[in-house]
């Protein structure tokens, strides 16, 4: 089983991915792409997508991209920090790709 097949077989078992309804669109040597279906529960007080949802999606996407080989070998890696600059609000209907982890 290659890394991509392994990740695809395990991703549905990750409790956080289930909670966020994250779906793996692609993962290969250039990066990974996850998708979530927008739900009202992801809104902030202004009606746009909550920054925590965006940060979670970015974190999970980067984690899959960076940790592909660590996942299959069960190594432990951690992130020392990340910075996200929010340039504008994301409202329902803005369907552009938010982030492609590399």
Q: In terms of topology, how is this protein built?
A:
Elements (H helix, E strand, L loop, with lengths): L2 H8 L4 H5 L2 E7 L2 E6 L14 H23 L29
Antiparallel strand pairs: 1-2
Helix pairs in contact: 1-3
Structure, explained:
The protein has three helices and two strands, in the order ααββα. The protein has helices spanning 3-10, 15-19, 51-73, and strands at residues 22-28, 31-36. Helices cover 35% and strands 13% of the residues. The chain has one domain: Hotdog Thioesterase (Thiol Ester Dehydrase, Chain A, Roll). Strand 1 and strand 2 (31-36) form a beta hairpin. It has a two-stranded antiparallel sheet. Helix 1 (3-10) crosses helix 3. By secondary structure, it is α+β, with helices and mostly antiparallel strands.
Write out key terms for the chains shown.
2 strands, two-stranded antiparallel sheet, 102 residues, Thiol Ester Dehydrase, Chain A
**In order across it, which strands form the biggest sheet?**
1-2
Q: What is the domain tally?
A: 1
Name of the CATH architecture: Roll
Number of helices: 3
Question: What do the pLDDT scores average to?
Answer: 76
Question: What percentage of the residues does DSSP assign to strands (E)?
Answer: 5-15%
Q: What's the shape? A: globular
The helix content is: 25-40%
Distance between the termini: 22 Å
CATH class: Alpha Beta
**Order of helical and strand elements:** HHEEH
Largest sheet entry: 2 strands, antiparallel
Q: Low-confidence runs (pLDDT<50, min 5 residues)? A: none
């Amino acid at each position: 089983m290659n890394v991509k097949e392994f990740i695809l077989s395990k991703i549905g078992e990750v409790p956080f991915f289930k909670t966020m309804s994250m779906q793996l669109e692609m993962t290969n040597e250039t990066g990974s792409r996850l998708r979530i279906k927008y739900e009202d529960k992801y809104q902030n007080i202004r009606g746009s997508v909550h920054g925590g949802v965006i940060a979670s999606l970015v974190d999970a996407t980067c984690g899959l991209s960076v940790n592909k080989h660590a996942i299959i070998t069960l190594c432990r890696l951690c992130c020392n920090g990340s910075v996200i600059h929010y340039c504008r609000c994301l409202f329902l209907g803005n369907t552009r790709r938010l982030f492609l982890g590399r």
